[in-house]
Design a protein that fits this description.
Layout lengths: L1 E9 L5 E10 L4 E5 L6 H8 L7 E6 L2 E2 L8 H6 L1 E4 L11 H12 L3 H14 L15 H13 L5 E5 L7 H16 L3 E5 L3 H7 L2 E4 L6
Parallel strand pairs: 3-8, 3-9, 6-7, 7-8
Antiparallel strand pairs: 1-2, 1-4, 4-5
Helix pairs in contact: 3-4, 3-5, 4-5
The structure holds adenosine-5'-diphosphate (2 copies).
């Protein structure tokens, strides 16, 4: 469902981040991308999310080369993707419910549907009882769960997570990985970039190792 064909990425600074990447990710797969800092993990995820474009080669999603999407198709493509960052960047003056509801409010969904969706997403990440809490009242692990709920509330078919456990203790990190595995069991294709080799190994999923390009 996601295919990289001879993909190169060179940033305008001249820095080469990806060199001839060929990779097929199947629908419904959970895949880890590992490699040292600077190996290009983030860049690979950003190419799928259309946050960057390849310098050469093609990224295809559902057999569609992303470069062929016309501008009108891009918003609906983006809605298929949930992106989770190392830092969830929550709005600190809004409670958990409102943080998660934000993408749905923007899409103009009716309020009763929003409530149902948001509560369902928060239940899935284990925060069903914290809907009224404010981010500062939560632990780092709980804040990251809010970020995950917000990313999946649109029911994306693809979930991309960039070092989602980078700020967490090992035990919390493990829980977060299980949360992703649970969305994968529900059918989402999940890609997680992480440099935590021990954690990745314990999940027993296919793992792609990127090497830093020295060119
Ligand atoms: P990782 O996620 O594995 O740490 P990145 O994809 O962030 O790797 O980075 C790969 C390489 O590209 C690194 O050398 C990094 O410095 C460089 N890089 C990443 N983003 C940019 C950017 N916006 N501009 C210039 N160089 C970048
Ligand atoms: P609903 O159909 O009311 O949204 P579900 O229990 O089917 O309730 O799903 C609850 C929430 O879990 C969804 O709103 C979504 O956030 C998340 N979810 C469910 N299935 C998936 C999936 N395949 N991929 C991503 N997120 C999902």
């Amino acid at each position: 469902m996601i295919e990289f064909r001879q993909v190169y990425k060179r940033y305008p600074t001249g820095q080469l981040a990806l060199y001839n990447v060929n990779l097929t990710i199947h629908a419904g797969e959970m895949l880890f991308i590992t490699g040292n800092s600077g190996a290009g993990k983030s860049t690979l995820l950003k190419l799928i999310a259309l946050l960057e474009t390849p310098s050469k080669g093609n990224v295809l999603v559902g057999n569609m080369p992303l470069t062929h999407l016309n501008p009108r198709q891009i918003p609906s493509y983006r809605r298929k993707i949930g992106f989770i960052f190392q830092d969830p960047h929550l709005l600190y003056d809004r409670n958990v419910f409102d943080n998660v509801a934000l993408p749905l409010l923007i899409s103009g969904m009716p309020l009763p549907d929003i409530k149902r969706r948001v509560n369902a997403a928060l239940d899935k990440v284990g925060l069903g009882r914290k809907t009224k809490s404010f981010p500062l009242m939560l632990s780092a692990g709980e804040r990251q769960r809010v970020g995950i709920a917000r990313a999946v509330v649109n029911r994306p078919t693809i979930i991309l997570a960039d070092e989602p456990t980078g700020n967490l203790d090992p035990e919390l990190a493990q829980d977060i990985m299980y949360t992703f595995a649970q969305f994968n069991d529900l059918g989402a294709t999940v890609l997680i970039a992480s440099h935590d080799h021990g954690l990745v190994e314990r999940m027993k999923k296919r793992t792609v190792v990127l090497q830093r390009v020295e060119l």
